[in-house]
């Protein structure tokens, strides 16, 4: 989990993408879970205009 993150996902390190489940790699944890049928292979992402932290 994280707050106030910004930047381009296209330029993010693949190690972070895998942790977040945003990588197209089959080695990311969500991809492995989906392959086993534990979860659906979808991503939910919440993008807020204002900061979540005060």
Automatic annotation (TrEMBL):
Full protein name: Uncharacterized protein
Which InterPro entries does the UniProt entry name for this protein?
Peptidase_aspartic_dom_sf
Q: Which domain of life is it from?
A: Eukaryota
Q: Which organism is it from?
A: Taxus chinensis (Chinese yew)
